Amino acid sequence: MAASSFDTSLTFAAEMDARDPLARFRDEFHIPPTPDGSASVYLCGHSLGLQPKRAREYVEIELEDWAKLAVEAHFRGRNPWMPYHRSLTASMGGIVGAEPAEVVVMNSLTANLHLMMVSFYRPTAERHKIVIEAGAFPSDRYAVASQIRFHGFDPATSLVELKPRPSEATMRQEEIQGLLEREGKSIALVMLGGVNYATGQLFDMPAITRAGHAQGCVVAFDLAHAAGNVPVRLHDWGVDFAVWCTYKYLNGGPGCVGGCFVHEKHGRAFDLPRFAGWWGHDQDTRFLMGPEFHPMPGAEGWQLSNPPILALAALRASLEIFAAAGIEQLRKKSISLTGYLEYLLDQTKSDRFSVITPRDPEQRGAQLSIRIRQNGRAVLDRLLAEEIYCDCREPDILRAAPMPLYNTYSDVHRFAERFIALLA
Ligand SMILES: Cc1ncc(COP(=O)(O)O)c(C=O)c1O
Questions:
Q1: Ligand 1 pocket test: which of 199, 222, 245 has the largest number of ligand atoms within 8 Å of its C-beta?
Q2: C-alpha angle 47-243-178 in degrees, rounded to nearest 5
């Protein structure tokens, strides 16, 4: 919906909510209550997604089967635990645009990033650099720098950080292309966040993948802020690998299991070095307990351990809701909701804050990052005291992300109204 069709009245927000084809999904989630029992305004799904109501039921099924069947639940449970992780493959594949053999839920994001780099970061004297975005999530920076050191290289020369122009907050695609063209032959791995956690910028993943491959680089993405937020087509884009977490946009619950994608072109590359564990071993012979590791084809061949069923049960509840709503429909509403938030913020000509997330909806997901010139923390504290959830990232960025699955236009209206009033 174009900004020209929005207006500032609460009636408009209520009308938009009444016409929202996805409105019924809000009732699938527990919205944190205020002290008077009404629903709070939760714009923090970029940090921790809300609990799907059916998560409790799904976890309880597994707790009951554990109580009644114990070890036999691996085979005789209502959802046998042996193949449980596979029950998430189709829905997770739909979210990131992966073939079933290319996707697996396992471990956590940073652990998966390391496992992937063991296989796909193979530096040589000529080609040893890793490109990340300046302001990448610290865990990514720590992980890539430690891998560089592990191979005997120095992050000072092997870690390249893409920086925006001095007066700009976000990256231009032409700068990314330019760097790849200039330095491509020395770059082993391009590893960017699909959506940057701080600025909310959505990178042009297909164009970056093409540009990186043209230079012979491996191209990978951290989709922590992209999976479940924006449509992603990892297989079609030819991305080499990707990792993500499931506790943000995917509502899997705190510390829930991570996701991992390995493109099918690498699925049978059994000669790649990899850190092995028994759950990645060929499932037909896994329980023969032999001494030699024979990996399964596809992403499952990178698994280490048997997965945490209770966490998977909660994630399964959320992925079912995603499948019912449809990622394209969600994106449509998301563009409208975030555009509405931007529109409301734009109505005040305050110089106390500015939106640093790209203005172009194609270059962002749900999140707007708002730079507050002074006292950002105090504004956040006041909002939280009024049961309006968003968060701050140092030094001066307030992040707010309306989720199309459970947020309303009225939520966005209330946030914008209170935010502007508190700054005034
Ligand atoms: C972009 C990004 N990368 C990596 C991580 C680290 O995730 P984990 O703690 O699951 O390894 C986070 C966590 O918020 C993140 O936002």
A1: 245
A2: 100
